[in-house]
């Protein structure tokens, strides 16, 4: 039986991944790790164990891992791309010093580790269309620098110490439970909230800017599927390209407008977000993930839009 620790369990991905892992592996086997000030609430708190786990504190990670007999760690602690530009040192401390702590505990305690990378690990010199699995990774954002380092350090611990590290490169994740904070792709979440609230959406990203995106249920499935995959089939480890949809602001706007005809959008471009978005791929080639562990997304823009609008109408009582 698996005993799982999620570090960053109250964040955008963590809050939903924790619940999905509890559904699959049993509530008591999945520990929600959080930092003070970001305590779990509601169902996340009530449905299973939780513990304070600050990724920058190796001893704290070790004691929780030992106490709960943890064999798998999902390490989701990170600052997103925009906020990392204003706090580069903190982004490194959480993303890389924190990862080092996690990997050391994993090496000593025999844990498997999932630490996501991102489309942000690519940069302007990467081929932008159908970006290959193995290609140029020279990002100029601190977020990107930490994500490339995450991939390298995770592979290093696998090759040198045999730690079972695996990861995907997440696209922008669209979700309706916990909002993202400080990312370049956040607009694709915010636009749904505006549509459901009946507000005009002010888009910070230019028309024509393509970025890879994914609906949360597919993102959760990718992480769990990869950690369950037969290791003998894995040629790559850190980290796999995964893809399900790629669109620009006009395309998502029209997908929503089909269901909310009065919905309006105007542009007010954020130069930092635009610069970051321009440096990222337009679309990823995820052939390796499909071949090595059977990756296949379930949602496209239309089916995601229908589900997002329904879930947000319930949530916001609209
Ligand atoms: N969603 C992230 C960001 O925008 C990218 O992985 O920073």
UniProtKB/TrEMBL annotation:
<dbReference type="GO" id="GO:0006567">
    <property type="term" value="P:L-threonine catabolic process"/>
</dbReference>
<dbReference type="InterPro" id="IPR001509">
    <property type="entry name" value="Epimerase_deHydtase"/>
</dbReference>
<dbReference type="InterPro" id="IPR036291">
    <property type="entry name" value="NAD(P)-bd_dom_sf"/>
</dbReference>
<feature type="domain" description="NAD-dependent epimerase/dehydratase">
    <location>
        <begin position="4"/>
        <end position="242"/>
    </location>
</feature>
<dbReference type="GO" id="GO:0008743">
    <property type="term" value="F:L-threonine 3-dehydrogenase activity"/>
</dbReference>
<protein>
    <submittedName>
        <fullName>NAD dependent nucleotide-diphosphate-sugar epimerase</fullName>
    </submittedName>
</protein>
<comment type="similarity">
    <text>Belongs to the NAD(P)-dependent epimerase/dehydratase family.</text>
</comment>
<dbReference type="Pfam" id="PF01370">
    <property type="entry name" value="Epimerase"/>
</dbReference>
<dbReference type="InterPro" id="IPR051225">
    <property type="entry name" value="NAD(P)_epim/dehydratase"/>
</dbReference>
